[in-house]
Amino acid sequence: MNTPAATTAQIRQSMEGVVGKGNVLTDAETLMRYSHDASLSPPHLPDMVIKVRTTAEVQGVLKIANANHYPVVPRSSGTGTYGTGIPEEGGLILDLSGMKRIPRTDTRNRWVLIEPGATFGELERELARHGMQPLNPLLPRKDKSVITSVLEREPVLSCKTECDEPLRTMELVWGTGELLRTGSMCVDTIPAEEIPDKTNSDLCSTGGPGIDWWRLLTGCQGSFGVVTMMNVKIFHKPLLQKVRFIAFNSLEEAVRPFYAIQKREIGHECFLLNSYAMATIMAQGQEEIPGLAKKIPPYVLVLNLWGGQFFPEDRIAYEAMAVDEIAEQYNLAAGERLDGVSEANLRMQKMLTRPWEGDVYWKERLAGGCLELVIESGLDKVPSHWKLFKGMAAEHAIDTRHLGLYIQPRQRARVCHVEFHIPCDPDSAAEAAPVKAFQRAAFEGLINAGAFFYRPYYDWAQTIYTRSGYTHEVIKKLKKILDPNLILNPGKLAL
Prior knowledge:
The protein contains 16 helices and 17 strands. The chain is an alpha+beta fold. Strand 16 and strand 17 form a beta hairpin.
């Protein structure tokens, strides 16, 4: 979608009238910074970067862009990892990171209102004042937007069904510049934080008006609308908690005990890491990772026994007894120690509700970068997927000792979110190119083996949608209705 230079200049001038001249950036350094991310996807330069502070400014920018058929790519996180914020067809980057308000917290109904620029660190500090905690994914980046994480369907650490989908209601702007509020947030056009006081709505209901907007809009990579406010679930801080580890020599050995723990609803947070992934989290320094990975058991299940607001001692005692019973049943050891790591339980407990605090992200500590493959799978099928992944890595001369595995059960292990991590040096073309080729080959091998890729990132959308029947045709029709001039993140989702 090429726009003549004169038209681009006119568009820029119109944008300056909406957000102010200082918030329309066109210098080479800024454009280069926004042209790429950590995914190793091919870079594309935007024509300009526009920083917004209010929903009204977002509407103004999108109305001008829509009238001129001008591409808009929304971004709110400091670091992108899947290629979703790269402007495939140029145009402008709509930088929402300055919209940082957290205007209201409801402890009774357990929700908080946030804008797209609010990060996990900022939300954690705000909720601590109310005795609450966010529903985090595993150690998110410190500059990660909470709203971006929710829209990308990143799983939270809690396996409880009521926590699995944090989104309740939201406010968003279509590609035309029109405003929509979903669920019970739609009862009025007053500021969302005033709705509970001035209406009979508690902002909890996700339903209505019409279709199920919140499910449609998650995972769309900013190609349907721009979210400017969201109401997400939160949880009380525990009065007591205790982290336990269960070690396994093989992934197959972990399946039945894992299911047994989830069936009895043990642990508020629960997930499994292989030794390499655990080492990247627990090592004091980068140089310690390979050695520590050899000391840590091959696979480790992490359980956080959680004492909430009522009878915390009794709950912890019950959960600890249940873990011991399951461990005895399967001839396993469950304890608070982890081989090679001092005070592992206390360190892990501290991490569970916080973003990653290090300067280098945990997945990138060994080599400086990390590519991922993310699928959903029944836990019983993960061992075969993992075996295939490692086998293909060996064929591509990838060091299998440094492949990461993270399994996050959802809704008490009805299904599991599964991540395969491939460390690489993004600054070395000689290393990055083979790793990128292996990532693509592994994707094709896994999808041919029946793995379900529920987030069509990187350049995989076309392959995924060719196997989805009429799903992609329906998505195209919805795109044309909600973004008639196709300005929002063109090129993503094979649109």
